[in-house]
Specification:
Layout (H helix, E strand, L loop, with lengths): L7 E5 L2 E5 L15 E8 L6 E9 L4 E4 L3 E8 L1 E6 L5 E5 L3 E4 L4 E5 L3 E9 L5
Antiparallel strand pairs: 1-2, 3-4, 4-11, 5-10, 6-9, 6-11, 7-8, 7-10
């Protein structure tokens, strides 16, 4: 995944802040899929953590394989999720928190519009 940072970052001492990170999320460029993702923070201060927003609009589902551990908080809307290894399905609504272990392949769907905030343990370091 190409690193695309969101918003405008400022620092105040050790505190890093990104303003308006939920706006203008870049597309994932998946044909026929209305999926968008962008990092607000990508390995700040050399950390292996990243965070940002994932947005999905009704249309074709997105299939995504996690090559890192990630947690996602559903900010608004509803995600329908299928673990492709087991076939198990779950629904995640606003306020729910999800954990995707490394190696999980998930099919994401929504009937309308869903927005999630994620934190992942992945690095862009070479």
């Amino acid at each position: 995944m190409e690193q695309q940072l969101l918003g405008n970052m400022t620092t105040s001492g050790a505190i890093h802040k990104v303003e308006n990170a939920h706006e203008n999320i870049p597309t994932m460029n998946e044909p026929g899929v209305n999926a968008f993702i962008g990092d607000a923070f990508a390995n700040p201060e050399g950390s292996s953590m990243c965070s940002g927003f994932f947005e999905l609009k009704a249309g074709e589902p997105l299939v995504y394989e996690y090559t890192y551990d990630e947690m996602k908080y559903v900010v608004k809307g509803r995600f329908r999720l299928t673990d492709l290894a087991s076939g198990e399905q779950t629904v995640a609504d606003q306020g729910d928190i999800l954990f995707f272990p490394k190696g999980t392949t998930v099919k994401f769907e929504t009937d309308g519009h869903a927005l999630g905030f994620f934190t992942g343990d992945r690095s862009f370091a070479a």
